[in-house]
Amino acid sequence: MLELSQIRENPEKIIKYLAIKNFKAQETVESILQYDERRRTLQKESDSCLAEQNNIAARIGALMKAGKKAEAEQEKEKNAALKETSRQLQNLLSETEKLLHDELVKLPNLPHEKVPAGKSAADNEIVFSVKELPSAEGKKPHWELCEKYGLIDFETGVKLTGAGFPLYKGKGARLQRALINFFLDKATENGFLEVQPPILVNEDSGFGTGQLPDKEGQMYFVGEDKFYLIPTAEVPVTNIYRDVMLKENDLPQKLTAYTPCFRREAGSYGKDVRGLNRLHQFDKVEIVRIEHPERSYEVLEEMKDYVCGLLQQLQLPYRVLRLCGGDMSFASAMTYDLEVYSSAQQRWLEVSSVSNFETFQSNRLKLRFKNAEGKKQLAHTLNGSALALPRIVAALLENNQTAEGIALPEVLHRYTGFKMID
RNA sequence: GGAGAGAUGGCAGAGUGGUUGAUUGCAGCGGUCUUGAAAACCGCCUUGGGUAACACCAACGGGGGUUCGAAUCCCUCUCUCUCCGCCA
Hints:
This protein is α+β, with helices and mostly antiparallel strands. Helices cover 43% and strands 22% of the residues. The mean pLDDT is 92.
């Protein structure tokens, strides 16, 4: 959620920047300014009405004490009328506040000035790419390899739940566990505090990170208790800081968490969702940082580089994209996507998304810190996948297949307990 | 799931209808004293709206109600604790 003060001060800037995200903000900004104006007028009227009632009440108190009952009765009548007026004002006020809030929530985050304009994924800026791609010669796609080596049983997953809920088996299951441990160990070594959050969250948490309102279609919902299954650990982990006031030297806060993630992905089909390419349930290790506004972009680079480091250790060919305005998420100010190359499918698969949300989430979360002058200031929030497992597994399988089996990168050996899937 | 108790400022803890936005203690901040520190003493110390700044308004878990007036009374929801039941 953008800050109201920001909109008041420079509505033109908001409209201009949101155009980069292909969002037409004109109307919304105008109604926000109108509602804000009305809200303040009503607030003043209501305040002075209440002030008058307070005065009268105090007078009645004094009169009662002095035993002047008749006069007190007179004052009471006055207050009855005022009370009706202020009831009406209150109604108008809360109505206006709601309208204002509803409009405010519609506006996506402003893109950072470095974010390129663009309509779709085709316009993303490639900031890094490996020079040589592995050949597809004689390579089998990962779903065939999964079957061949008995790593994943998609059919039984369908029986148990439905499409997109794979059953990992044997070395396949062990590889999952190995990757999770590897990623968590790396994050911990780099100063992230490991946490294990709930994977069901309430509505307030969904609002805090920007999934709600409007994007409930993406999440599984447990109606009985009004809980949402998390689409990413970002939701519970960032919401740890909802309604929190930090001290300046509490910054940065660095957290990491492994969680399963659940996404409905309504409407997906075809080869995009074949095998591990897109699932309804998958595993991911996430890193989250709460940062001082002055440092957040430095930190974004740092986080991106950290994830690149993981991919290097896994010896996967990868590239880094800076997303264009049209491809960025609602809440993000700048996002890097990291993609690994999947040699049999001959396509890039997104395995991480690293974003700076600036104050967009913290404004919703009321996540602030007291700065050096003792003033309260919204913190910046950032997060990134480090990493999402399924497509990493897909790329590992496809790129490392040999006649003898699938050779795993060395960093994983101590986690898997085997070097080769055969 | 059943019965009972509770929810107040960073924490602890008063307050049961009328200058209580809230006694007090601790913590924190500033000062006096001191070579420095401690102790002692003095002062400051909730948040949001609003204002150029004041004024003013709101908030004692959330929502609603009674009343001229509610932290204080009533209803309701949520959460916490104790006991019972069930259980990985």
